[in-house]
Description:
By secondary structure, the chain is α/β, with parallel strands linked by helices. The chain is built from 8 helices and 6 strands; from the N terminus they run βααββαβαβααααβ.
Amino acid sequence: MAVNVNVxxxxxxxxxxxxxxxxxxxxSEDMQHLWADxxxxxxxxxxxxxxxxxxxxxQYRNAGVYAEFAxxxxxSVGFLNGGTFRVKSFYGENxxxxxxxxxSMLDTAFDIxxxxxxxxxxxxxxxxxxxxxxxxxxxxNGIQLPEVLNxxxxxxxxxxFIDTLELWKFGDFKNYxxxxxxxxxxxxxxxxxxxxxxxxxxxxxxxxxxxxxATYCQKDVVATARVYLRMQLxxxxxxxxxxxxx
Length: 246
């Protein structure tokens, strides 16, 4: 199952998202109507999270996974360089600024004219969630897609994505395995020791603690890198080798 690439050419990343606004009532009237229409469909496909007994505001708390109704609040990245795993986050209340910062980093890191240009993006379930979410939010914010994310017209094998969920499926496309499950079975410290994705909305809007979200997101990046290395039967990343870059 090995992906025959140099691990130092991989950028590991993860994102955290939250609904566009703290409450349903803060949405524009048009967006409220659109969300109401969407919840009707979601009540059939996801009755455990969306049902008629819930208020519209309660249902909107689960909007964080839908790029049209949500926003990116943090993107964390990490890469191996000479035995050191460098981790950096782009986060804050200004989505446009953090997305621009992420784009600038990608444009530089993946510039093939650089001697040690990165070549691959790796994450857990990035093909179905992180990558399309970031691309949609960039376009909504009027930001040109960086080349590594601009996959229009490309075949699946022509993209630069490595998805640990896909690797673990071994072709079993009906199966979903969480990052927490993989860290547990591989004996890797869990990144979910403080908060998890379902709590990001509350931490962002009610606690106003985006630093806490960034810390959680960085743990996910480290965990993903460790899972990938275990899948490739390569040495893991020690806590002492992690460098957090501002």
